[in-house]
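Morning, I've got a small favour to ask if you have a moment. I owe you a coffee for this, so here goes:
>
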Amino acid sequence: MKTKRKMYLDRKPLEEILPAFLEAVRIPDPIPTERVSIPDALGRITGESVLAEVSSPHYHGAAMDGVAVEAAATVDASESHPLELRLGPQVAYVDTGDPLPAETDSVVIIENVQPLDGDRIEILSAVRPWQHVRTLGEDLVASQLILPPGHRIRPYDIGVLLAGGLTEVSVRRKPRVVILPTGTELVQPGQALEPGDIIEFNSRILGAFVREWGAEWVPHPIVPDDPDALLEAVRAALAENDVVVVNAGSSAGEEDYTVHVFETVGEVIQHGVALAPGQPAIFAHAEGKPLLGCPGFPVSGVVIFNEFVRPLLGRLMGVAPPSGPRVRAEVGRKLPSRLGLLEHVRVKVGTVNGRTIALPLPRASSLTTSMAEADGVVRVPRNVEGLGKGAEVEVELFRGAEDIGRNILLAGSHDLALDLLGVTLAERVPGASLSKAPMGSLDGLLALKGGEAHLTGCHLLDPDSGAYNFPAVAEHFPPGEMALVNFVYRRQGLLVPRGNPLGIAGIADLAREDVRFVNRQRGAGTRILLDHRLEKMGIDPDSIQGYDRVVTTHMAVAAAVASGAADVGLGVLSAARVLDLDFLPVGWERYDLAAPRASLESSLLGPLFDILNHAAYREKVLSLGGYQVHHMGDVLESDPGPPPETE
C-alpha cells in the first residue's frame, strides 16, 4: 500500500464533527437482541417491553403473624370487650407469607390474640377486610409492564423481573468495539523492556471505558508500523465488529498511516478536531460502521473517547450516553487555554469553607498519572481565552459527589512522606482522601490564603533571618490565624548518577560548563534554598546550564537525573534512594504543614493530624531515609531551630 504524507489542517469543532460522525453510522432497525438470564442482565439494555408472566404475590398471603379471620366476624371486638372465636376453616393461625384460608379475608396480629383452652381464642381488636394481607397482584399483575424497551437494568430491576416469574430477558446486543494498538515500539505488559520500548496500556484504558459504558471490548494484538499490516487488520476488524478504533498513528508523521487506511476501506469524514488534547483524531466510516483514529498519547485518547465514543455507543445501544455526576465549582487559580480549542482540564476537587474548589492538574497529554489523580474534568469553551481565578465551572466528576466532601486539598510543596500520609489516612478513615496539588511552597500559601486549599506544605527559608516558614506566614496572614504543624525535617542535597561520574562536589560545581542542571519552579522552597546558597557564594544563576529548566516535584528532579536528561539536581534524599542515585548532602530544612488554627481538630483535618503522632507512621517515614521526626505533629509557636544533627 502506497501512502503520502497528509496534514490535518482543518480542525473543525466537536459540535460540527459529532453529528456527521453519528449520522454516518447505519444502525439496524430493530437493534439486534439476545436473551440472557436475569442474574446476568445487570447493566444491559432491554430490547423490548418486559411483561410480568405471573402475579406477585400470586395468592392472598398473610402480611403479619397472627390469626386469619373473616373481617365481618370481628366488628365488635376490642380490648374492653374481647371476642371469643373457635379455630376452624374461618379462624386459623398464620405466619407472615402463609396463604390465607379460603374463607378468610384479614389477619388479626398475634399481639391482639389471647389463646384460651382447647381450640378457643380471644381477639382484642376488630379488623377491616384485607387488613394485614398482601393481596394477589398487590405488587405485580400478570401481563403488567415491568420495564420498557431501552431501559438499563439496575440491581432493583433484577428482583422485580424474578418476582414477575421471568428467568430470562431480551436485551440489546452489546456493540463490539475492537481497539487496534499500533506501533513497532510497543510491547505487551510484563515483557522485558529495552530502551525505546513502550508498554502497551492505551488499549486497556480505552477498553475499560468501553466496558464501563456497557459495550464489549475486543482486544487486538499490537499492529506494527506497516501500512499493509494495518490495512489487513482494519479490514478483518470491520468484518467482525461494530466499531473499529485504531490507537496511535492518527497524526501526520511519516509512520502515521491510519488516515490512508481509512480512505482505502471507507470514507474519511474529518481529520483533526478543535479539541485539546486530542487534535489529530480521525473520523471515518465504512460499510455503515464507524472508524476512529485515536491519538497515541493516553490523555488525548481518553478525551476523544469521552467526547465521541461515549455518545456513539449510546446511539448504537439506543440509550442516552452515560455520564458521571457533576458539580459547580470555583477555579482555584488562573486557568489559561488556547482560543479556538475546547480544552479538557483535569482537576482536584474539594470543599473549603463551604465553597467547592477545583485545582487544575498538569495538562500534558502524555501524563497518565494526572488521569489517576484527578477527581474530575473541566471543559474550557473554545471561544474563551482561559478562565480567571474564581471563575465558576462545571466539573464532571470521576468519583461520587459524596466523596468530595471528604477530600482534603493540600496545595504546596511535594514530599514523598505526604504519599505515605495519604495512604495511612485512607486506611484509617474509609472514604477520606488526601488530594495533593504540587505547586511550590509560596503558591501553596497563596492558595491557602485565597481559600482554595485546606492546608499547605511549605519549607520557605527566609534568607535574612535564616528561619523557616514563620516569616512567610506572618507576611500573608493575620497573627494567630494560621498554625504551623511540623511535618518533618528533611535532608536536601545534590542528586547525581550512581558513582558521580562528573565528580560534582557541591553547589559551586553547578556553574561548570560540562554540568547540566535541572531546577525547581519559582516559589518552590528548594528553589529559594538554592538561590540563597548561590547568592552567598556569589554565583550568577545565568552561569548554570539548565537553571531555567524547571520541574515541579523532587521525584521529577530525580527522574531527570536518572534518565540522563540532567547531570544534577537539588532534592531530598528519599527521592535519590527511590531511583538509586548518589546524594551529596547540602543541609537540613524544616518542612511544615500550615492550616487554619481553628481547623486542626475538625472532623476533616483532625484525623490527618492525629496520624502524625502515631509511632507506626513515623517509622515508615524514617525508613524512606533523610528525615527526622522529633517534632512531627507539634504545633509550633516559634522557630525551634535546626535539628539535632546538622552538616
Summary: The radius of gyration is 34 Å. The chain has a mean pLDDT of 90. The longest strand covers residues 482-496. Residues 272 and 281 are 5 Å apart (CA to CA).
